[in-house]
């Protein structure tokens, strides 16, 4: 199964390189310097950005689900993505000439704050009502998003804010996506703590009894989620449901061992986002539909199916 996922990811990556308004043919690739230049400046960076974004967001979704002990949440619908957008908005309002690293730092800080707020709210919810967690997350994220939109409207930045609220890759070029490599590094480092995140998913009491520093691992998880989400929002915008759909699909197919499933989760996230990006480029060719819209439709359908699908066994 893992080999199939790897081959599918490679195949879609190759297809992504040759899909677009400017025609590039394999037969004339090495004899056409302009085609090679297009691949190096635009198509290649775009494909890399899509793969990193999909994989990193899927990993963050799996980690967040362990932290809150609920399978129906993910960063982009639980306030983290909206918090990152809030940070970028604050920098734009009060320090418009700030470098991209300042925007990233502020977005990470506000994303961390909103993630911590969501976690604090979740801990007060009754454990016998698991569906309250995603519903509260949606409401919490919507409130933060509404505040961001209101402030942007008052500051005449409404059109600008839409870039952050709906993810798309059409503006990705060489020199404009490299921050995503930091997100890839954070996702890779999260794998080293996969066992600790899995133990945290058993609850505070079990974690402490097993000798785990519960607070430290939770802070590490929130920090990883916040950094990846902030980098994604700063670079390509919000892509909802990736962190919700992918971990649940992988969990149903390969089980709940986070150490074993995290690599497959990352590759599956990359595959689904890459497929959505290709579909967005082809549906209204030569125009594009943002990948956030394509995956939002797909994710909403899968989310409803996950909510109402019968469980295979009692929890």
Q: What's the layout of helices and strands?
A:
Layout: H1 2-17, H2 33-68, H3 80-94, H4 100-122, H5 132-154, H6 158-165, H7 180-190, H8 194-200, H9 204-209, H10 214-235, H11 242-254, H12 258-283, H13 291-308
Helix pairs in contact: 1-12, 2-7, 2-10, 2-11, 2-12, 3-4, 3-5, 3-10, 4-10, 5-6, 7-10, 11-12, 11-13, 12-13
Instruction: Please identify which CATH superfamily we are dealing with.
Output: ABC transporter involved in vitamin B12 uptake, BtuC
Radius of gyration: 19 Å
What is the overall number of helices? 13
How would you state the average pLDDT, rounded? 83
- In total, the number of domains comes to 1
Task: Give the second-level CATH assignment, the architecture.
Answer: Orthogonal Bundle
Identify the CATH class.
Answer: Mainly Alpha
